[in-house]
Amino acid sequence: MGLKLYNTLTRRLEDFIPRSDVVGIYTCGLTVQGPPHVGHIRAALVRDILMRWLSHLGHKVKALENFTDIDDKIIEKQKEYKQDWRIISQKNIETYLRACDELNITRADVYPRASQHIEEIISLVQRLIDKGYAYEKKGDVYFRVRKFPDYGRFSKKSIDELMAGARIEPTESKDDPLDFTLWKAAKPGEPYWLSPWGKGRPGWHIECSAMSMHYLGETFDIHTGGEDLIFPHHENEIAQSVAATGKEFVRFWLHNGWVTLTGEKMSKSTGHYSPIKDVLERYSSNVIRLFMLKTHYRKQLEYADERLHEARSAYATIKTYLDKHGDVPQISEPLMRDTFTEAMNDDLNTSRALAVLYELITEGNECKDDRRAKEIAASVKYYYTLLGFIEEVEEVVEPYKAVVQILSDVKKRLREEKRDSVLESITSIDDFELLKDIKNIYPLIIRLLLRIRDELRKEKDYEFADYIRERLSESGIFVDDSTKGSTYRREVR
RNA sequence: GGCGGUAUAGCCAAGUAGCAAGGCGGCGGUCUGCAAAACCGCUAUUCGCCGGUGCAAAUCCGGCUGCCGCCUCCA
Fold first, then answer.
1. If you write DSSP's letter for every residue of A308-367 in order, what string do you get?
2. What is the pLDDT of residues A206-231, one digit of tens each?
3. Which nucleotides on strand B sit less than 7 A from a protein beta carbon?
4. N or C: which end of chain A has fewer CB within 10 A?
5. Does residue A164 sit in the same domain as residue A100?
6. Average pLDDT of chain A?
7. Same domain, A425 and A369
8. Nucleotide closest in space to A263 (CA vs C1')
9. How many CA atoms lie within 13 A of A101 on its CB side?
10. Could you tell me if residue A340 is inside a domain?
11. Where is average pLDDT lowest: A66-75, A114-123, A157-166, A379-388?
C-alpha cells in the first residue's frame, strides 16, 4: 500500500502518484505584515512532515514556500509604523525562518517573494487579459469570475450565494462584484511597480499562481496551506491559473486545520494569536513538535498551556528512554516498520505513528534481552528522527550561574556549621583548572554538590542533603538517588 | 441562511462494520532515609441524542442537538 492523501479537490483520500521524478510542492506561506504565530508553524510543520515522508518513500521533492510581502495590509503597517514595507516584511520573514530552523522544519528549496516576481506576475495578468479573462479599469485589473464556469467548485460555493455577500468597494470599478483584483493601481505615496496598466502592485492571489508556475511548471503535484485559504485564495488561484494555461493546475490540495486559542481560531487580523517567538521561549522545539504531531494535521488543534504541558510530559518519556540507551546504532530496518508505514501512508497519520513509538518504548522497558533491547532503542531513535525530532543542546550559561551560587551557599553553610569532615572530603577535589571551560565546569560543579550531599547522607544529615536537592531542583536540576549513586537530569523545557 | 468540519474515558487523541491504539492525569505496586525518576499493573461493557439497516455499527442510513469555521483579511 502506498501513500494516500486527502485531497480537498475531491474531498476524499486518494493514492498519491507523482507526475514525474520530482514532486513539486507549493505551500502558501505568510503575508508578512505581522509576526508569525503558532498557526503558521503548523502549516510549515505539515509541509515538513510531508517532505520528510515523501523523501523517506524515495521521492525527490522540490518545495516552495512563498512570502506575500506586498499587499494592502503591509501598506497600512507602513503608514502606521512609518517604516518602509520592506523593513517590516524582512523582519517578519527573519523571525519566521529563525523559528522554523529552531523547530527543525525542513527548509523549502525556494522562498519566493511576491515583490521579487513582479515580472512573472505582470506577464500572467497580461495573459489573462489577452484570453479575455481579465480586464483593466482605471489602472486596476480584475479577473472576470463569471467567465470561468467552474468558479466556486473547489470551495463548494455557488456564485449566486457569493453574490449575496459581495460588494464593490467605493474605490473599485469592477464590472461585477464577484470579480477579484489581479493588479491594483497605486495611490499617491504607495509603493508601486511599472506595468502596462500604469503604476501599481499585484493583488492578493496572483503571486501564488505566478510563482508556483515559474518554479514548478504549469501543473504540479501538491499545494498545501491552512484550511482558511480554501476560499477565496485557492479558489481564485485555480481560476486564474487554469484560465491562463488551460491546463490542470494542481493535483493534490492539502489543507491543515487551524490552531485555536481559547476555542477560537488564531488570526493575525483579530490579534487573537500566540506569536511563535513567545512560544519558543517557553517550550522546547521537540515539545512543540510533539504537541502538534499528536493531533492529525487536518483536525483543529487547541493551543493551551495545559496541552503543551501534557506534550512536555509525553516528550519526557521519549527523551528519558533515549537518554537511558545513549548510543544506539544507526539501522535501516526498524521494528514495527509496517505499522508505522501504514500510519504515515494513511494521510500522514502522525498520531498513530507516535503510538508505534510508545509501544516500542514500553516493550523496550520490559525487555530483558540486551540485543533485543538495543534493537528496540535503535528503532525508537529511527522513528524519532524520521518525525523530525532533534538532539537537544543544553543551555549552560544560566544554570551555570545558578549552580555556582548554590555551591557557594552550601560551602558557607558547611563552614558555619563547622562540618570539617565534609569540607575535607571536597578540598581534595581541585578541578578548578577546568574553570576555563564553562561546558565542563557546569556538570563538574553539580557533581561536586552531589558528592557533598553524598557525604551528608552518609552522616545521615538528611535535612542538609534535602536542602541541596531542593536548591538544585529550583534551578531545574533534578537529583535522582539510586542504589548505584546519585544522578541528575535537567528539566525538559 | 448556504457550505464545510467535528462530537470517543477526568483531559487530549487514533480508530469508517467483527469484541475501543496511544499519550497526559489518577490510583496501586517495585525501588528509596525520604523524595523524585524509572519501571510494572489498573483506569471507556462503551463511542453527543433518537430511530433504522445488518448475524454484527463508534464505524452505514435518516432525524435531532452542541461546538468550531468559511461565505470579508487569515496558515
1. HHHHHHHHHHHHHHHHHH-S----SS-TTHHHHHHHHHBT--HHHHHHHHHHHHHHHHH-
2. 999 999 999 999 999 999 999 999 99
3. 1-6, 11-15, 21-25, 31-41, 67-75
4. N
5. yes
6. 90
7. no
8. B68
9. 6
10. yes
11. A157-166
Determine whether the annotation assigns residue A28 to a binding site. Answer: yes
Which nucleotide is closest, CA of A457 to its C1'? B33
Are A364 and A246 found together in one domain? no
Does residue A270 fall inside a structural domain?
no
- Give A326's pLDDT tier (boundaries 50, 70, 90): confident
The 3-state DSSP class for residue A283 equals coil
Using alpha carbons only, give the angle A167, A171, A172 rounded to the nearest 5 degrees: 60
So what's the ipTM on this one? 0.95
Q: Which nucleotide in the DNA or RNA is closest to residue A255, CA to C1'?
A: B75
Are the beta carbons of A33 and A74 closer than 8 angstroms?
A: yes
Range of the domain at A50: 4-265
**What pLDDT score does A438 carry?**
61
Residue with cell 469592477: A174
Stated in angstroms, how far is A168 CA from B1 C1'? 22
Query: What CA–CA distance (Å, rounded) separates A112 from A92?
Result: 15
The CATH number of the domain holding residue A240 is 3.40.50.620
Distance A355 CA to B42 C1' (A): 20
Q: How far apart are CA A359 and CA A352, in angstroms?
A: 11
Query: Does residue A381 share a domain with residue A415?
Result: no
Nucleotide nearest to A224 (CA to C1'): B75
Do residue A414 and residue A378 come from a single domain?
no
Task: Consult the annotation and say whether A174 binds a ligand.
Answer: no
Closest amino acid to nucleotide B38 (CA–C1')? A320
Instruction: Identify the CATH number of the domain in which residue A326 sits.
Output: 1.20.120.640
Kindly state whether residue A274 falls inside one of the protein's structural domains. no
Q: Measure, in angstroms, how far nucleotide B73 C1' is from residue A72 CA.
A: 10
